[in-house]
Fold each of these.
Amino acid sequence: MTNVASQPDNVIEMAAGGTAPNLASRWFDAAPREISELQWERFRSSIAEIFTAFGMDLQTPGTRDTPQRFLKALYDITAGYDGDPKLATSFPTEHGQGIEAAPSQVIEGPIDFNCLCEHHALPFFGTAFIAYIAGDQIIGISKLTRLVRLFARRFTVQERLGEQIADGLIALIDPRGVAVHLEAAHLCTHVRGVEEHSRTTTTVWRGEFVDADLRREFLAEVRSLRRG
């Protein structure tokens, strides 16, 4: 992330384009991760060694099980690697065939998300706003939250997260356009390094959102939803 000293938030825009995931790869329906009891115990032992070396006393009632709890929390936070087969459900649009109309946006947000930055394995967290212009299919509103969390619960970076959400929605329902707006705080800059308490904003555009008027409409709605 590049910090801009002259403004409190960082703003990065992704250009339209990009390659959508291949739906045949079943990226939303990945096989669950399998970790054996032997692996789990080895990981727990390694974490206990690290925590002890860094100064934690693991012989107290409050810390004795901390390595195990840490591993379980880490496993839960990265559950996005297990996929979400419920994302495969979509529905036909309800406008009649051949009906001409101005592009109509479906907008959802704010959707809360939490991630682990792949650079330092520290959390970053914030809100997502998603808009799409339907083609022949629509997706249930709750599926947009599922889509965000599928990609958020991984080791990632904010720029990639927005790209994956946009391209994932394209792979699922092939809409005429997609917009994704993310705002997040990063602990890797809050608690280490420059210790700057800024927020980072990224925006991704696809398809018909090349139109500046649609972009302005989306961003105006984001501001309204944020205030609400």
Note: Residues 93 and 137 are 5 Å apart (CA to CA).
Amino acid sequence: MATTRPRVLQYGKMPLTQLDAELAQAYEVSILSEQPDPERFLAEHGGQFEYAVTSAAMGLPAGVVDALPNLKFVSSFGVGFDALDKDALLRRGARVGYTPGVLDDCVADLAFALLLDATRGLSESDRFVRRGDWSQSRFGIRTRASGKRLGIFGMGRIGSTVARRASGFDMEVAYHNRRPVEGSPHQYLPSLLELARWADILVITAAGGEGTRHLVNAEVLAALGPQGFLVNVARGSVVDEAALADALESKRIAGAGLDVFEDEPRPLPALLALDNVVLAPHIASGTHETRRAMADLVLHNLQQFIATGRPAAEVPWSAAQ
């Protein structure tokens, strides 16, 4: 029997399992990753889909977009959009919704968790205790976080939330963006290199993509210096991971806290051997509250686009169409 429900192509299983069920309840959903032959499925059925759902981690490659000639809208779970093929989507004229705003607090919380862990050596001290080393020696003295200079690369929603957290630690905050943020109370520095020279701790909250690829390179890390710390809760591509591993190993920077990596889920092996870096498996938005809010916005974006032709939250380059 023919269905009157809109047909939705789901690129893969979503990070929140309830969202899979909620999408299937509201729409006629086909999950591409579950098809025995995804390429053949797209060739035979691609023209039936006007809507697609994916996540920031999965993205949507050009080959899939090109196989969906009637695609009008993509609802993506997450704030990153560098894995979505921008050129293919713009050629197709498809709009793209995402889930900003609802994860700012949790990402900022994790940025500070990594910051505190890196500066105070919490994960390293945990390993020290578990190995039984405490009975034989004292754990080394570390660096306090409060009162430090905090540099933020990317003063968007998440960067601004990190800056608010910093006030509770009596930190001085400065930032670098492509342009100054109107009304920001914090000092703007016109280059990332200047920000790194100024900061004791550099937190990355900038968007990923080719425009920011490897902007945190060996020169920036050298400017941060042997007493400096790096925290990345943005995208792994923003940091030259090999240069970072070398700077950590040679103690040209003091430490780092990373939630994201260039090749997830495979951090550079050199990082795994170092004690002065804290590694997390891309969990910044991984709380029940935030994932639920993100799922709700995925659904809301899809519902609103179908009803009005415009999602509640749209990626910047999509909205410019």
Note: The chain has two domains: 7-98+289-308, 104-279.
Amino acid sequence: MGQRSPNANNGHKLNATEHYQRTVTRIAQIQSHLNNAPRSQRLNDKTCIITGVGSLPGIGRASALLFAHHGAHHLYLLDFCADNLPELESTIRQLYPDVKVTVIQADAADEAAIAAVCKRAIEEDGRLDVFFANAGIATTKALPDLTAEGFMETMRVNSLSCFLAVKHGSQAMMHVDPSKGKTLCGGSIILTSSVAGLRSGAGTVDYSASKAAVNSIAQTSVYQLQRTDIRVNSICPGLIETNMTKGVFDFARQRGRGNKLGQLNPLGRYGLPQEIAQMALFLASDESSYVNGQNLAVDAGLSASHPVIPGHWA
């Protein structure tokens, strides 16, 4: 039998209803943050590429808006589906007329497309400073139902896209053009991974394997890019409400269990795309200039512990 932890919380503990009400309030605060936050120049003069921006409740779109809010010079925004790209372009132009924005319908795992957008950034802006490889897919098939073709498609979309971002993004970041204000090579490459890539229990076999590969790409590539001042890091989100997780959220809410979403992490709630975008902004900015080769979990503490009964040692 486990012993009670001396660090157990003996203070006031919210009941389920109180905690859910607090969660709803906190979610609303996070969602409205951009409306109230002052603009800054954290990404001043930076030319940025972001993939996977098409989903309205997605991490890519949230990051594009946040990058614009913080002074990015030019945003090249890519998605496999063109449906929502015009709306995103017009929104950024309306809210941030000083930010250049170019939307492109392209497959993030298509080498020709990725090489082309990196080349275009050099031709048009003389520099590339940030590549946020965010595009990806989620899968639901259990091991007996997963085909070899399905496994490889997940690896193609989730892992190959990140490899291409590192390969072609880093090459573009080595380009120096003093007339454009870039006198030294360098830049930040950010890869969207998942807590499923850190350990089992957060995704299917193919999805988890693809995200583990992304984490390895981040760690391995920095030693191929030594002394270039090009940094590569991955972000490992926990349970975030996006189109990719819509099935999970719909299933819980249809059964009246929406208050249970995210209950396994210490904060006891799910996350929002804006919270992942904030980590991407940090990694894109010069504030993270000494952060390199890291797999950064943004998961409310989910991956911080082995399974544990609160108040007891395992």
Note: The mean pLDDT is 92.
Amino acid sequence: MRAAWYDTQGPSSVLQVGELPDPEPGEGEVRVRVTRSGINPGDVKKRTGEYSGMAYPRVVPHSDGVGVIDAVGPGADAARIGRRVWVHGAQSYRQLGTAAEYVVVPEPLAVDLPDGVSDDLGAALGIPGITAHRAVFGDGPVSGSTVLVHGVRGAVSSLAAQLAAWGGATVIGTVRTATSAAVRGVSSLVALDDDPAAAVLRLAPGGVDRIVEVALDANADLDAAVIRNLGVIAAYATHDDRPGLPFWPMLFQNTTIRLLGSDDFPEAAKAQAAADLSAAAAAGALEAPVAAVLPLDRIAEAHDAVMDPAVHGRVLLSID
């Protein structure tokens, strides 16, 4: 099969493209003929070594993708051969991800893609969608509640906003400047370059029930100012790995801080997230703008684009 890989960590130039043996599914696994491979910042950080050293002597990157099941191993459902699926977690604790013509994953990680849902959207669900679902629903239903979503144009946050709206919540989103355009699923936008706490409290005078947080260190004071008593801050990222927190304001509001590491969510939570994401996509409740679809041999350019703040939208590889 044609694939991309790296044998050592470093800049995007360490990525190679060539031929590797076709993988074969083992017990409880399925093989997917990949049509789109989704790239996340975490894939880039694994390649650079920001998270840890090389877990394997060679890595085919990317955890997300979409394609068609073309083979199954013992114990997997042979009736699924020929079905379109979206894949999540392919390279989580595994060597071979979706930047290849074929990927083998445990059967639950290949989720049936509803008819009418595009390959581009399917490839953009994956880890961002699973993380977004946990951020929104990890503490129960949100119907009738108010959810604040920071950085609402990001891959995770945009899906979180749409899922919260799909779940019956009123969604407030933060953006950098007041000139930002509307975002699907978001009732109101609040600009961080003004007085965001006052703006949020004008929209939700009693405070917000849940906060989806992309920068816990930068937004801790704002979050403490607007969280309702017994509210939840679900954080999936921070710039400073030792963020300072306004302890007493959060304590007096009985605030829960939920930290989200998608690779290690409970299996039941991942399964529920996958089912809900597919249902919401089938209902037309989700979109994931795509900035670029590049061929496999331009994977280094795609990795650089993922980390470029001027690039808005998902970056995908076409595996063709």
Note: Residues 119-137 form the longest helix (19 residues).
